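Support case: user asked for a sample of complex input and structure output to validate their parser. Sending the pair below.
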Amino acid sequence: MLVLSRRLGENIRIGDDIKVVVLDVKGGQVKLGIEAPLSVQVHRQEIYERIQEANRHAAAVPPAWLAGAARHLRSSEAR
Amino acid sequence: MKIHTATLGVVEATPESFLTLSEGLVGFEEHKEFALLTLADYEPFRWLQSFSDPGLSFPLLAPSRYVSGFEPALTETDRLALGLEPGELPDVYAIASVADDGSVTLNLRAPVVVNPRKRTARQVVLADSRWEVQHPLVRRGSATPQSARVADGL
């Protein structure tokens, strides 16, 4: 892993089009500003992992289970 | 055209159902071309079926009828990526999961937002942590449960 020290207001460049700025450092917390192209999605690691896990789970839903849930939903709406 | 899927059999997909997700879904970035299928057995759910992998499909549900007040705030980046004109409203879907007891959760934190005019879509990660990754789907008309809201601090 590359390790760099930066002061408040200083930047890091990643490739030609990604810039990370240190905006604030306070009480063990660092506030970063990130400029990146539209095609690069930027997420916090924890939320990225939870969404990835939810997507994996959804991709593995057996169609029969979804059909069952769908019947349940339709019948409760018909009432 | 017909798509031979691994789990849904052979399904008919019209060009109006095609969707391009240029960044894919989170964790599935390599899959970009999908069909949004409406199949009678699964309504009101729909299936987002990958063209590149016949075994890859995701259940979707439009949450507007089931979750009150869900209006995802899109960033300008999201709107640009989808090609939405100013004022143009996207279609919003949540990816659904079903547990073995039949209970359904919706991922409201990262909805799939569609520009129906351009047939583009994007899984948007909302900044608003009120919307849960596993929001329990409650049948319409039944009382809203006091679901334990896990403060994720994000």
